[in-house]
Amino acid sequence: MEERAGVLDDLAELEVFRTLLEPTGIKGIVVDCPDCDEEHHVDWALMQANLRQLLEEGQTGRHEPPFDPDPDDYVSWDYASGYADGIAAVADREEPGGEGRGGRHARDD
User: Fold this and answer.
1) Which residues, in sequence order, are CB contacts of 10 under 8 Å at separation 6+?
2) 42, 55, 41, 43: which is closest to 10 by C-alpha?
3) CB neighbours of 26 closer than 8 A, spacing ≥ 6?
4) Collapsed DSSP state (helix, strand, coil) of residue 56
5) Longest Cα–Cα distance in the chain
6) Among 10, 28, 38, 79, who pairs with 75 as Cys (CB 3.0-4.6 Å)?
């Protein structure tokens, strides 16, 4: 149940990241693959599908990465999380009575 809750949290965060970053031209997330020791550039929809498949089946299948992706079009999960935290902090400061509650999307791990 704890792992399921973590994946559900990841799905919610991913939607926030996509909402904030897609309009800026970012196409998805880059992840380090421990199996092949390479970076994989995963677009927003595929990342969402992977997480949903993980919820439903307990694992993800193999997917073809984009052909010749431009690394500048993808960000790490940590970058996306920091970006979302920055946007939230600015919104908190601009909100009347905003106390700057800190990062809402920062991971504890």
Assistant:
1) 51
2) 55
3) 73, 74, 75
4) helix
5) 49
6) 79
Each residue of 39-69: b (16+ CB within 10 Å) or e?
Answer: ebbbbbebbbebbeebeeeeeeeeeeebeeb
- Whether the predicted pLDDT of 65 surpasses 70: no
Kindly report the pTM of this predicted structure.
0.78
Compute the average pLDDT of residues 52-78: 83
Distance, CA of 109 to CA of 94 (rounded, Å) = 29
Domain ranges of the chain: 2-94
Sign of CA dihedral 66, 68, 71, 72: negative
Cβ proximity of 44 and 22 under 8 Å: yes
Segments in the chain forming alpha helices (H): 2-21, 44-57, 77-94
In angstroms, the CA 60 to CA 54 distance is 5
Cβ-contact 64, 82 below 8 angstroms: no
